[in-house]
Amino acid sequence: MAKASGLAADTIILDLEDAVAPDQKARARQSVLAMLRSGQFIGTEVVVRVNGLATQEIAADVAVAVHADAVLVPKIDSALDIARCEAALDASAPDRRVGLWAMIETPRAVLSIAEICAEAERPAARLSCLVVGTNDLAKDARVAIVPGRAPLLSWMSQCVLAARAYGLVVLDGVFNDVRDADGFAAECRQGRELGFDGKTLIHPAQIGPANALYGPSEAEIAAASAVVEAFARPENAGKGVIVVDGRMTERLHLDMAQRVLAGASAYGAR
């Protein structure tokens, strides 16, 4: 935690769940609360992963986690679980807009993914992000974790599609072998191609490559700039379709280009 605020990650997740031994839970909560109150993370988004809703730790975890920017809840199975999380956050932090992140890591969660994401449309909903827990999902579904992740791809795509339908951020799961730089890069490229907004990481050495691979390339920035500049010309005002570099280009491509440039701006600032 002491090193975390200096890392070039978009978000820091402080973990009270799997990273903490059962007899160290109380101590971990005290450490996380002290760190959140220290002011060390000013300007950095901080999320606290709590223990599951069915555990005896959850109430004490939430009391600490509401001092962060968002609470990450594991083993979400249904829309009812989201409603329970929202109610707990409303009770613990009625005057703070603490976000809710949901870990999608069980077969039931994937089967219920549309209903889970639809909870984001409720008035004053806190749900803002999905984190696909590929390790636990593979374990519970009894499929192999193999290069290319073929057994998981359809389930991952369902999560991306549901997130897009309801305006949520969706993050890919972790890559387990911190020594395998090529495998990690391939999985980042795959995640981006599938539509994920980013990747959860387990080691600082993964941050730079993830930022580079999820950030737009120079070629993508140049192509996006050409589209934006073309639609900005007076002769193209009001046109729905134009030709840019020999390609038919619609207004939907303008929206995509603007997203690329916004991402490039954020990446450059970071």
CATH 2nd-level architecture of the largest domain: Alpha-Beta Barrel
What helical percentage do the residues reach? 40-55%
Counting structural domains, the number is: 2
Uncertain runs are none
The rounded Rg comes to: 20 Å
Give me the CATH superfamily of the largest domain. Answer: Phosphoenolpyruvate-binding domains
Shape: globular
Give the ordered list of helices and strands: EHEHEHEHHEHHEHEHHEEH
What does the average pLDDT come to?
Answer: 92
Structural class: alpha/beta
Strand content: 5-15%
The CATH topology of the largest domain comes to TIM Barrel
3D structure, described in words:
The chain is an alpha/beta fold and 270 residues long. The protein has two domains: 4-214, Phosphoenolpyruvate-binding domains (TIM Barrel), CATH 3.20.20; 218-269, no CATH class. Helices cover 46% and strands 15% of the residues. A seven-stranded parallel β-sheet has the order 1-2-3-4-5-6-7. β6, α8 and β7 (198-199) form a beta-alpha-beta unit. The longest helix has 19 residues, at 251-269. It starts with 10 loop residues before the first strand and ends with a helix. 34% of the residues are buried.
